[in-house]
Amino acid sequence: xxxxxxxxxxxxxxxxxxxxxxxxxxxxxxxxxxxxxxxxxxxxxxxxxxxxxxxxxxxxxxxxxxxxxxxxxxxxxxxxxxxxxxxxxxxxxxxxxxxxxxxxxxxxxxxxxxxxxxxxxxxxxxxxxxxxxxxxxxxxxxxxxxxxxxxxxxxxxxxxxxxxxxxxxxxxxxxxxxxxxxxxxxxxxxxxxxxxxxx
Length: 199
Fold this sequence. Notes:
The chain has a single domain (2-195), classed as Rossmann fold (3-Layer(aba) Sandwich). The chain is of the alpha/beta class and 199 residues long. It has nine helices and five strands; from the N terminus they run ββαβααβαααβααα.
């Protein structure tokens, strides 16, 4: 999470949405950079509202706007699947090496997920307790140029991103019945993505 104090803007680092590349490009101009450990780096909107926003307000800044990125749920799951297929995770409970993407998504849909499929929820990360989007400016990952235009204007600087944290290539085709099941059982994930800015 990056806080731009003078510009009154907070950037939430939604996992697996290119947040590391944005963080590396913008950290030098952020007033506050919460980057480690991951639980702090990936502070969700509801936790910011509960703990940090009141503290910032007590410090005289109660007018922050927030910005974040959301990725299409299938693409987001594909990113997690590829990330956890890295050679260095082989033999670890979080590893997806040797399994298909379809098997990974089936595991993700279980009530009790195995460790490799425990990847959280973009919807929970970006919404309040009533399921409403808790971010002022929410951009689709697929609309990265629009996000960069917004940030460049808001921060008054050019932003150049480097490709970081790349995962191995993999086959990411889901069976139609599994896509339908994912859309039905995790409808909130698709709803958040559909409400985000696409351009």
